[in-house]
Amino acid sequence: MKVKSSLKSLKSRHAACQVVRRKGKVLVINKVDPRFKAKQGCCR
Predict the structure, then answer these.
(1) d(CA 44, CA 10)
(2) CB burial class (10 A; 0-12, 13-18, 19+) of residue 28?
(3) Across-strand partners of 29?
(4) pLDDT digit of tens for each residue in the chain (44 aa)?
(5) Dist. CA 18–CA 7, nearest whole Å
(6) Closest by CA position to 17, among listed 43, 42, 39, 41
């Protein structure tokens, strides 16, 4: 999983990537190919 300050460019890496918010973090998830996961946000 990549940890980035901006997820806008990581969303366009794969057609199945989705940007979701969970528990104050912004995540990029991909159910087709899980190696494209990424997150943004502090570790609280």
Answers:
(1) 23
(2) buried
(3) 18
(4) 899 999 999 999 999 999 999 998 999 999 999 999 999 987 66
(5) 10
(6) 39
